[in-house]
Every structure is written in structure tokens, then in C-alpha cells.
Design brief:
Elements lengths: L22 E13 L2 H6 L6 E2 L6 E12 L8 H4 E13 L2 E11 L2 H10 L3 E3 L1 E4 L18 E8 L2 E13 L4 H4 L3 E7 L12 E7 L2 E17 L14 E14 L2 E5 L1
Parallel strand pairs: 5-6, 5-10
Antiparallel strand pairs: 1-3, 1-13, 2-4, 3-4, 4-5, 7-8, 8-9, 9-12, 10-11, 11-14, 12-13
Length: about 260
Amino acid sequence: MLQGYTYPLSPRGEANLAPAPPWHYAGDIVGVEFWTDPAAAEATLPEGLSPDPESGGRAVALFIDWQFSAEHDEYLDPVRSQYREFMVLVDARWRDEPVSWCPYIYVDNDLAMARGWVQGFPKKLGSVHQTRVFAAPGSASPALVAGGRFGASLSAAGHTLAEARVTLQQPVSDPAALFGRPTVNLRHFPRLISGQYDKPAVHELVMAESNDRRFADVWTGSGDIALFAARGEELADLSPVRTGAGFRASMSYSVTDVRPLSR
């Protein structure tokens, strides 16, 4: 019997891209809050979500340097467990609940892509980089202090898609203001049957569930971000009309479930 949680299934079950949950994550985040054309933000929403009338096109861009593990100390294999990610989260409503919707997300690791598709994140391959903090102080590492500066970028298929800059101003005691909205995703797996291409095998809204979520070294300040047009991409349709806060934070959490909202 073939074994595994995701493709490829194999005799020993070791070749699959993603083992079964629980999945554990730890990462450093560089983010920028911005506002886009409300019509452009609404155009990305799937059926079941509606624009947040109090947000006016608000979105957040996140650049994240991740380390992953499952239940067998996978973080000791860094070539597989480490990856970088960029995502945009758009403010929305599910019924009357404020949520975030992720229309676009990029990663540089196929294992992370497999886990993302299972959760409903529409991951594509990209190259993501951000300024890092190191324990040893020096001119090559910014400090988590007022005036600390961070940069981040995303490219895909040879095209620069996003660039951001953040300057820290003050620590944040309550991260809920930055990370308070739950994320809603669309799990979508199409059929490859003639005449049924518009009848996917799976098409369901789900809410991301995270356990034991922790934050550290959360700082906010000023931020700037630019999104660039490229063939085969629609990220730039969400280009900012103005920016808000920039921030830098570290976080960790675990994933075991998603909560189905509609099928």
C-alpha cells in the first residue's frame, strides 16, 4: 500500500512533500499596511466574502522568513524546513466577522507550496528576501530600536513584483492590532474531466486555524511599498494609493485544522 499525506505517495511514505499535521512554524516578518482602490480589493474576493465597509481597501503585505517542523524535528534539515514567503492580505467580512483574505502568495520552497495548497493558500513560486536581525550587533544588522531600517523584495519569473522599506519607531505591546483578523482561504482543486472543468472536485471557503500563537519583538513604524506589473501576474492591480504603518515582528504557531465555512 502506498503511503504519505501529500504527493508523491510512496512505499515508505517518506517521499511526500508534506507530512501529516501538526505543522509548526516560526518566522520573522517585515510588513507594510496600505490602502488600494476598494474596487480592486473587492474584485479579488470569492463568493461568500464581502468588502469590509470600515476598511476602504485596506491590505497588508507580509514578507516572512520561515522555519518549519512537523513531529520529527524537521527543522534539523534546513534545506527543506527553511523558506521565504510573500503574501497580501485584504480586509474583508465573512458575514459580520472581520477577516483577512489572501488573494496572492509566493514561496521559494515546493514543500511549503504543497502545505499551502492543502490549506487553501494560492501559492506560486517566487524569490523573497528581507533584511535579517542577528544577535551579534554590527553595521550589517539593524537593531530592534527606534530608527532600525528593513528592506524586503519579491520577484518571480525574472520580474520584480514588490519592494518595501520599513523604519521602526516604537515597540508594540499588543500585537492584536496588527494580527487580529483570522485569515480565510479558498481550497480549490479542479476536475480534469471534459465538460466538468467548471465543476471543481473541491471548492470551499475555510478559516485558517492556528494554535499556540506567540509573538516577540513586535515593532511598528513607517512603511512604504511598491507593487510592479508583470506578464502573468495581477498583484499590481492592488497597487497602493497610500501606505500606513510598517512593522517588524517574530511569531510562531502550529496548524492542525482548517474550519470549513462553506462548500
